[in-house]
Amino acid sequence: MKKHIPNAITCCNLICGCYATACAFWAGTVDYHYYMLAVMAVIAGAVFDFFDGLAARSLGVSSPIGKELDSLADVVTFGVAPSAMLFSLFQQVQYPEFMQFLRPVMPYTAFLMAAFSALRLAKFNLDVRQSTSFIGLPTPANALFWGSLIVGQYAFLVSAKFNALFLFLFMILFCWLMVAELPLFALKFKSTKLRDNQEKIVFLAGCLPLMLLEYSALAAIIVWYVALSIIINIRKQ
């Protein structure tokens, strides 16, 4: 039975993604508070995603099917679910006068996020350079960014100060970040030496004031992580 435990945990991740997707669609038609349930489901999926690999290694039952199943579950939880959130948000944001004719079709552009998430996961499975750090924004970080942003800044996103054009351009930026050749520094502490962990300490120090943003904190922390990685890469070059 133990060989099925990691796959069962992965399936829990997949179910969380399905529930998050349903909540995201309900948020657009029933009540915007469903966005919160969608984010909670994505976070639960991320927890299951962490423990399925840990369970497989601990039990010594890693398998090719487990790796494939993990990617399929991640496409749903961290690709389709945030796309569904954006789909609903596109139905609720303001549209400038010159974009009114696009209102019926604009929400469907949100599914570009799912496509780029799938591409990102496929690249990650084949890229041996990403064994200790990331190249491009990981799909869980992208999903958590959008969930945190929508829940924390919903009133602003649907106000007259924001509109569908900004949302579309912002979405395209994050689609690109997932597949960009952008090295992101590893968050694991490999030693106790200060010199070896400078960027991680700076990152953690910067996270402290961002926690005051409450629901938007995760989105701000992910932006800080990407920005700090870009600064580090520029300094190295």
List keywords for this structure.
237 residues; mainly alpha; Four Helix Bundle (Hemerythrin (Met), subunit A); two-stranded antiparallel ribbon; 9 helices; globular
Please give a structural write-up:
By secondary structure, this protein is mainly alpha-helical. It has one domain: CDP-alcohol phosphotransferase transmembrane (TM) domain (Four Helix Bundle (Hemerythrin (Met), subunit A), Up-down Bundle), CATH 1.20.120.1760. 68% of the residues lie in helices and 2% in strands. It is built from nine helices and two strands, in the order ααααβαααβαα. Strands 1-2 form a two-stranded antiparallel sheet. The longest helix is centred in the first third of the chain and has 29 residues, at 64-92. The chain is globular, with a radius of gyration of 19 Å. The model has no long low-confidence stretch (mean pLDDT 90).
